[in-house]
Amino acid sequence: MNHQLSGRHLIDGRWVAAAPADDGAFSSLSPMTGEALAPHFSEATPAEVESALSAARKSFVAVHDLDPRWPAALLEAIAARIESLGDDLLQRGEAETALPRARLTGERARTCSQLRMFAELVREGSWVEAVIDQSDPNRQPLPKPDIRRMLRPRGPVVVFGASNFPFAFGTCGGDTASALAGGNPVIVKGHPSHPGTSELFAIAVSMAIDECKLPPGLFALLQGRQNELSAQLVQHADTQAVGFTGSLRAGRALFDLASRREKPIPVYAEMGSLNPVVILPAAANERAGPIARDLAASLLLGGGQFCTKPGVVFVVGDPERRFADALAQHVQSAPAVTMLNRNLRDTFAERAALISRSNGVIAAVSGKSSGHADQTAVLFETTAEEFLHNPRLHEEAFGPGGIVVQCDSSAQAISCVEALGGNLTGTIHIGKAEDQATVALVLRSLENIVGRIIINGYPTGVEVCHAIVHGGPYPATTDSGTTSVGTAAMRRFVRPLAYQNTPQEILPPALQDDNPLGILRLIDGERTDRRIESPTR
Predict the structure, then answer these.
(1) What are the sequence ranges of the domains in the chain?
(2) Mind listing the pLDDT tens digit for each residue in 221-263?
(3) Does CATH number 3.30.310.260 belong to domain 277-455?
């Protein structure tokens, strides 16, 4: 199937834009050659932002009284429509990101899988966390009112997709899926590095909305690369929440804009992460070679452009340098990679140059930039003392590289961990002869700064499931109580609402006595799916 790209925006079910070839038009660039890829894409105007948010607000009102499970059918239809895009999606994604076809094929499967996972959760229905405390008119000294609580959607959500996962964290990625699952309209700001890929996903969503006979304003795609567009979306009065994946600089800018609104709104931003790895003495002694081999693979996976890339490694007790030398050999032998775009490559090269000029840092592997966006891997080494005294080493270098920190003791490694800011993950490699008290201390230090802990593994595998946490304290995210992967991601885009002494006929179905949805509820402290047989008021 051949899907022709238009370079336009999707607003209220229609493809609209100012003339695509006007002064504000832009093109995506091939990361491999720098060549401009057709077509031109139009920069969204303030009027188009207004139209998209107005349609979203109206659609939010229109779905209020539908069967609360309506998002399930939509999410499943979106997944099916994405699959029907076939090779068009893979070809465009490859051209705009330089990611290999096999990687994109897997990412497409993940994208569709997480859409269907949310659909299952919505259809089952208990995610709304319905709680009912029945009245007691005879309670003294005052009667007890009937109070019922559940999670309700916030309203229009603006989503900024990621460059490094153009499918799974893009136009139809986890933020969009979880916001729609919660019953919210979504306005996606397409990523300027892959606008064609974004448009193809929007085609799939538009077809799914039409198929499900839902209001077309439930989803919009606005293209653009200007900061003003992002600011307009965040500051619009109808925007009720924001999902973002990207750099610390951009995420913090959006967060600050939202905080300065007359009515501030939450920005759920996933930003930078070093993802520290601690290799304890027994592990270094028993498995230096295998850990070095597998850690190098994790470090360089996807060109080092994973948000869970292990960027700093604290090695305790490696006096013969068995681990450090083995890791350097694996990194040195890695071929150059084409990064997602030239800006990312240049930023990484500048960051690597800054690290290389730091006191007490040596380059175990010196990288090299070439072509339009090509980069070979880098690897630096330093001591715990230098790491602790140089905050510049605590900043993420997004790309194929990392830092090995030689620690004389576990206490030094713990001090280094505690000097870091928040991170998505923390990893510990433990040997059979490890001192368990030391292991416990390292574990506790990581618990305070990360959202997920890995033992004897590698952080770049993120399982999309109910239990996963893909978040962490600032600056990894702006809200350490949330996750952007897994079904708990829905909680970002809903809020608790209580109903007191409310007549049955106007209560949401999840809170009605008859329990028409058949969901699990907490009734007077008891977890049950039973109906309430007797009147409570």
Answers:
(1) 46-141+151-271+485-491, 277-455
(2) 999 999 999 999 999 999 999 999 999 999 999 999 999 999 9
(3) no
Residue from 307, 396, 407, 434 carrying the catalytic annotation: 307
Out of 76, 270, 381, 396, the active site residue is 270
Do the Cβ atoms of 476 and 315 come closer than 8 Å? no
What average pLDDT does this structure show over 507-523? 98
Query: What is the model's pLDDT at position 536?
Result: 47
What are φ and ψ of residue 128, in 5° steps? -70, -10
Look at residue 140 and give its three-state secondary structure: coil
E-strand ranges in 305-442 read 312-316, 337-338, 362-365, 369-370, 374-375, 378-383, 401-407, 423-429
DSSP 437-497: HHHHHHHHHHHTTEEEEEESS-TT----SSS-----TTTTBS-TT--SSSGGGGGGGEEEE
Q: How many C-beta atoms surround the C-beta of residue 325 within 10 A?
A: 13
CATH number of 46-141+151-271+485-491: 3.40.605.10
Residue 537: is its pLDDT beyond 60? no
Backbone angles phi, psi at 227, to 5 degrees: -60, -30
Share of the chain above pLDDT 70, in %: 98
270 labelled catalytic:
yes
> Is pLDDT at 21 greater than 90 in this prediction?
no
350 is catalytic: no
DSSP secondary structure letters along 27-86: EEE-TTT-PEEEEEEPPPPHHHHHHHHHHHHHHHHHTTTS-TTHHHHHHHHHHHHHHHTT
Write the CA distances from 501 to 65, 150, 510, 512, 537, integer angstroms: 20, 15, 15, 12, 8
Band (450; pLDDT cuts 50, 70, 90): very high
